[in-house]
Each structure stands twice: as structure tokens, then as C-alpha cells.
Amino acid sequence: MVGKELVGRTALVTGASRGIGAAVARRLATAGARLVLVARTEQALRTLAAELGGDAIVVTCDMREPDSATLVRRRLDAAGVACPDILVNNAGAFVLAPAHETSVELFRETLEVNLTAPFGLVHAFLPAMRARRTGHVVTIGSIADRAAFPGNAAYAASKYGLRALHEVVRGETRGTGIRATLVSPGPVDTELWDPIDPDSRDGFTPRAQMLEPAAVADAVHFAVTVSVEINVDELRLSRR
Ligand SMILES: NC(=O)c1ccc[n+]([C@@H]2O[C@H](COP(=O)([O-])OP(=O)(O)OC[C@H]3O[C@@H](n4cnc5c(N)ncnc54)[C@H](OP(=O)(O)O)[C@@H]3O)[C@@H](O)[C@H]2O)c1
């Protein structure tokens, strides 16, 4: 049962145009938060914003661009939002290729969206969170932030790095009033898997046995609504 614990709070969710990010945005909006929806696909963001009921802010942005965090911050400033209360770094790209077939360009692009962009938003908003002595940085990691699977050179490198970033932020904000949570799911049935078609490949979790995006949304909702005295450092999700 979702209450209205987040009324008066603003939650920024990257990668909100579909999949896990859209599910997280819906859940936090149901709990009363005002949403800032970030991704490249403007129409999907506008459709979701309309569904959420009016005051959601849409920021169309390619998070691989070096100035993406600045653009997001300017859009929030223009909307009268100095800093989100909750930052959910969710946008991500998944590539499956052995190291010797991963181009340097693909490796770089994966790190840009999965690691550099989340850092950019942390860098943009942590000072205001520190000044206010409140805020919550939620990072969507992966089973691949601790387990190195073949074919995951770029993805695992980005997600291991992202977990390290979370742990550093957690260490640096401990006792400041700011919370930091890493949510690391196993396979989740989203469009991310469409190009891979796991049902037809050995060694992959069939889609019917994957987590639903709503499970990740539940975890994020739990972390951001638990008693303020508690920091949920890390949640690792798998199917029972
Ligand atoms: N699905 C899984 O099995 C699984 C498991 C563990 C962790 N995760 C993680 O969960 C997160 C969400 O994954 P998902 O399964 O929901 O994937 P998805 O359905 O492919 O959605 C990815 C989201 O990220 C956005 N995005 C991708 N590249 C972007 C860019 N350059 N700039 C801005 N936004 C960008 C996409 O929006 P646009 O295309 O509109 O830009 C989309 O909203 C990722 O970090 C992923 O690594 C997924």
C-alpha cells in the first residue's frame, strides 16, 4: 500500500521514458512526489507527465552530452526548483559483446551514460543538498555491479564504477542528513532485452522469470520513505 509520504518533495528520475525509470516515476508520483522526468524521447516523457497529472517537469536530454547535468539544472531553475529532494540515477545502456568485439567508442559511450552522467547529476545537486542538509541520491546499479559476466566488458565496468561512486557518496554524506541508496536488480523484463532476445539464447534468464519493473519501484519507494533516521545503503533484488 502506497501512502502519500512524498507530498511536497520533488523526485528527479533519469531514464523515465520507459522500463524501470517509468515504473519508479509512477510509484513516487503515487506517493505524492512531484516528478522531473529525464530522457531523450520527448513524446514518451510528455505522455507519462500527462498520466501523472500535471505538474511533472519534462527534461528532454541526451545524458551522454558533457553539459547534460547543466541543462537539467537550468531547466529546474527555470521551473523554480533549486534542487530535487530525491535524485534517481536510473538511465542506462546495456550492451552485450565480448571485450575484443567492443569498440573503444561503444565502451566510452556506455560509461558516459551509465557512469559519467550519474556523476554529473550528483556533482550538480550535492552542494545544494549539503547546504539544506537533506536529500536522497538513489542509484540503480545491477547484479553486474558485483558479478562480472562474459559479454559485459563495458556494462560491468560502468556498473562496478557506479557502485563505487555510490559507496563514496554514501561515505562522504554520512551524518550530513543526505541519504544514499544503491538498488541492484537482477534481470528485469524491460525493452532493454529486446535486441538480445534472452528467451532464444542459452544461459540467459527467460523473460517470464525476470523481475518486473514494479519490483524495482517498490525497492526505491521503500528506501526513500523509510524512517529518516535510517539509510538503506544497498538493496539487491532477485526472483525468489
Ligand atoms: N532490465 C534489466 O534487466 C536491468 C537489470 C539491472 C539493472 N538495470 C538498470 O536499470 C536501468 C534502467 O534499465 P531498463 O531496463 O529500464 O532499460 P530500458 O527499458 O532500455 O530504459 C532505459 C532508459 O534509459 C534512458 N536512456 C538511455 N540512454 C540515454 C541517454 N543517452 N540519455 C538519456 N536517457 C537515456 C532511456 O530513455 P531514452 O531512450 O528515451 O533516452 C530509457 O528511459 C539501467 O541503468 C539498467 O542498467 C536493468
Describe this structure in words.
- The protein is an alpha/beta fold.
- Helix content is 40%, strand content 15%.
- It has helices spanning 19-30, 42-52, 68-78, 104-132, 153-173, 213-225, and strands at 10-14, 34-39, 57-60, 86-89, 135-140, 178-185, 234-237.
- The longest helix is centred in the middle third of the chain and has 29 residues, at 104-132.
- Residues 15-21, 39-41, 44, 62-64, 90-94, 113, 140, 142, 185, 187-188, 190-192 line the site of NADP nicotinamide-adenine-dinucleotide phosphate.
Shape: globular
Radius of gyration from the alpha-carbon trace, in angstroms: 17 Å
Mean pLDDT: 97
CATH class type: Alpha Beta
Query: Unreliable stretches, pLDDT < 50, 5 or more residues?
Result: none
**Architecture in CATH?**
3-Layer(aba) Sandwich
| Percentage of residues in DSSP E strands | 15-25%
How far the N terminus sits from the C terminus, by CA atoms, comes to 21 Å
The small molecules bound here are: NADP nicotinamide-adenine-dinucleotide phosphate
Q: What is the chain-wise order of helices and strands?
A: EHEHEHEHEHEHE
- Going by CATH, what is the homologous superfamily? NAD(P)-binding Rossmann-like Domain
Discrete helix count = 6
**Coarse structural class:** alpha/beta
**Total beta strand runs:** 7
CATH fold node name:
Rossmann fold
**Largest sheet, if any?**
7 strands, parallel
Helix share of residues?
40-55%
Number of domains: 1
Question: Can you list the strand order of the major beta sheet?
Answer: 3-2-1-4-5-6-7
